[in-house]
């Protein structure tokens, strides 16, 4: 299972939209996926519209035991192949900003339980929708993740926000999660004909180079329409939705490529031979 944390350091940039777009693309590519809603606003949970659960992600972060984890997961309204680790407002009580917060690795433990003993078909992808801050919830997600996707808008504050987020990713990688890699910086709500937007994207590319995704999410009404109908962008029938769905397909493909590249780098750093996809570890 590949776990990607979707984060931003500023509210209102469409982070949850991106997390849901990746989930929508995953339904076209993977057998089973999971969205963990770490944002106390609960927008991902509301859009995926799962049935009521006995527990929530707030309970899982306090007690990452199998009965609690299982009680917090429900199928989404989009597909029985996309589950939700249900969020709640109580998560805000756990989002203390200090780096010494207790039980910071409980989310990683919970996802590890799901990977070791899957209930049915294993998840191939877990998407962690983080709150727009660097408190305990986002740090817990980065400790649990294989990769981190930073979402931003093409504004004058984009470079500074991206720099802070990438520094946080590097800090977590060095201190707690050596496998963590940045999947990239994704620009959302791009207006192609806006000179300001094009200028800010160029500014991001000059600062972060290839980390900036080669494709951006265009600003289209179809996103709000699909979310309002609790429908995936791939199932919303409009030209704008089709354009965005194709973009999310490319974003997911890049995330999964970054996972393979990260595993190859880790193998090289450990002195292990680099394996082809599907090749067992003990193959000669």
From TrEMBL:
Pfam families documented for this protein: AAA_31
UniProt feature coiled coil, ranges: none
Gene3D superfamilies: P-loop containing nucleotide triphosphate hydrolases
UniProt cross-references to InterPro entries, sorted A to Z: AAA_dom, DNA_Partitioning_ATPase, P-loop_NTPase
Annotated region described as Disordered, given as residue ranges: 264-284
Domain AAA intervals: 1-180
PANTHER family for the chain: COBYRINIC ACID AC-DIAMIDE SYNTHASE, P-LOOP CONTAINING NUCLEOSIDE TRIPHOSPHATE HYDROLASE
Protein name, per record: Chromosome partitioning protein ParA
Organism: Amycolatopsis antarctica
């Amino acid at each position: 299972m590949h776990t990607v944390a979707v984060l931003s350091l500023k509210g209102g940039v469409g982070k949850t939209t991106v997390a849901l777009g990746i989930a929508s693309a995953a339904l076209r590519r993977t057998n089973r996926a999971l969205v963990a809603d770490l944002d106390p606003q609960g927008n991902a949970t509301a859009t995926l519209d799962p049935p009521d659960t006995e527990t929530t992600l707030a309970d899982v972060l306090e007690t990452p035991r199998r009965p609690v984890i299982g009680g917090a997961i429900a199928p989404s309204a989009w597909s029985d192949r996309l589950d939700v680790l249900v969020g709640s407002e109580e998560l805000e009580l756990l989002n203390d900003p200090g780096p010494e917060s207790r039980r910071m690795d409980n989310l990683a433990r919970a996802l590890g339980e799901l990977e070791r003993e899957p209930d049915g078909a294993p998840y191939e992808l877990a998407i962690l929708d983080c709150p727009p801050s660097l408190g305990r919830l986002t740090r817990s997600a980065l400790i649990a993740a294989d990769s981190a996707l930073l979402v931003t808008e093409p504004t004058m504050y984009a470079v500074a926000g991206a720099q802070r987020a990438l520094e946080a990713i590097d800090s977590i990688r060095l201190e707690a999660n050596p496998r963590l890699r940045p999947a990239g910086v994704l620009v959302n709500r791009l207006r192609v004909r806006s000179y300001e937007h094009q200028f800010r994207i160029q500014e991001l590319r000059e600062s972060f180079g290839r980390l900036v995704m080669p494709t951006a999410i265009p600003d289209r009404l179809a996103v709000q329409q699909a979310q309002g109908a609790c429908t995936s962008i791939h199932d919303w029938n409009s030209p704008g939705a089709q354009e965005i769905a194709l973009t999310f397909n490319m974003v997911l493909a890049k995330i999964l490529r970054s996972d393979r590249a990260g595993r190859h780098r880790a193998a090289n750093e450990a002195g292990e031979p680099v394996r082809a996809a599907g090749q067992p570890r003990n193959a000669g």
